[in-house]
Structure formats: C-alpha cells, structure tokens
Amino acid sequence: MYQDVILDHYKNPHGRGLRDGDAEVHHVNPTCGDEITLRVRLAGEKIEDVSYEGQGCSISQASASVLNELLVGKELAEAQRIQETFLELMQSKGRIEPDDAMEEVLEDAVAFAGVSKYPARVKCALLSWMAWKDATAKALSEGKTA
Ligand code: ZN
Fold it and tell me: What are the tens digits of pLDDT across the range 117-138?
C-alpha cells in the first residue's frame, strides 16, 4: 500500500516545474544520482509556492511531490514541524511505526516509513526536504519576505 503512494506521486507529481521564487537551490545525492532544483516563494510567514525540477529514482522524485503537497500554503512554523517530524521518521532506521498523530502531520509522507530501513535510500527521500530547508533559509536571509 505504501509502495503505491510513492509510485503514484512519482507518476503524477504535484506542482512540478519551476515557477517564480524568492530563492533557488540545487541539491544532488551523488550516491544515487538524484538531482533537484527547488525554488520557494514566501509571503510573510506563509509558503506561497515550492516549485521544483528534478531527476533520479522514484523515491527522490515522489518525495518532492509529497513535499509540495504538504508544505504549500502552510505557515513556516508548521512547515518546520512537518519537516522535523519527517526527518525523525526517516532517521529512525525502521524503528518508528507511524501512529495516527504522526500520520495526521505527515499525511502521504508516512509512506516513506519503510524506506528508513535502507540508509542509502534515506538520502533519496530527504533530498528535496534538505533543499527546501536550504532554499527557505536563503529566502529569509535575503529579506525578500518583507
Ligand atoms: Zn535516489
């Protein structure tokens, strides 16, 4: 079932394509060959858009789609909480079994729980999330949100 969620996001990615943004970053995962270019657009404390272009394995690309679906329209503080929860799950080495509370925060992102057992794939799943964090910090430091 979880596998289907990942595959579905891979085949029908949400919000793919580069649009206007306040900051852009390019991240690569050399161990797998995944790449992502990601832009964020902020309106004050709100995430107006996360747009991206990428290539690589289904996990890395599906993860970017899930990120777009989860974070666009959210306040930064909430998005940060989602990112931290996802990071915690992905670093759990398969020890965390997502409960209802976690599923409520992560929605489709809980589908990556099984991936956390495979250290090499964890980097694939986290690629776009690290890019988002980096791009957001860049956008904030450039003061484009004022
Ligand atoms: Zn990968």
Answer: 999 999 999 999 999 999 999 9
